[in-house]
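Run log, item B.
One chain of 173 residues. Sequence copied directly from the ordering sheet:
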Amino acid sequence: MSVYVALLRAVNVGGTGALPMAELKALCEEIGFTDVKTYIQSGNVLFRSDRDEATVQKDLEGALAHKMGKSPGVLLRSRRELQAIADSSPFPHAKPNYLLVNFLPEPAPADVLEKLLAPGGEEVHVANKEIYVHYPDGSGRSKLKLPALKAGTSRNLNTVRKLAEMAREMEAD
């Protein structure tokens, strides 16, 4: 069975998309995923399934849509992908909690940075289906504008590392 890490968009952020992690865990178990684990309150869930990635995506989005009225969006990554993302951080000087990895559903377009506005000295690096953003003063006060980020969901580097570690432990079991 494969281990999947699902990152949900806009769940438990700013009061929108409220979904307690216990309910997310139960929903995943109801649709047949096993060894389900959640991590923090921002829509991170790990599980095992013998279904292929496309089916896992469809099944989870369908279950979330049924529960919430619409799917918040699900981005799947494997342990290997998460580990490579964490290991490839282009900003080694950045504090991990000031470096957000923005996970996209598909590769970023070649012209993604043409509409970038980074007035606070933010640094941006595009890597296939992820966009790394270093917020030197934190993301809360940032005036960064990058339209491509709306399609995805963000996790700080600490969270990415923890999810990769949790997935590694599941694979070892």
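Observations after the first pass:
- The two ends are 11 Å apart (CA to CA).
- DSSP finds four helices and eight strands in the chain.
Flagged for discussion on Thursday.
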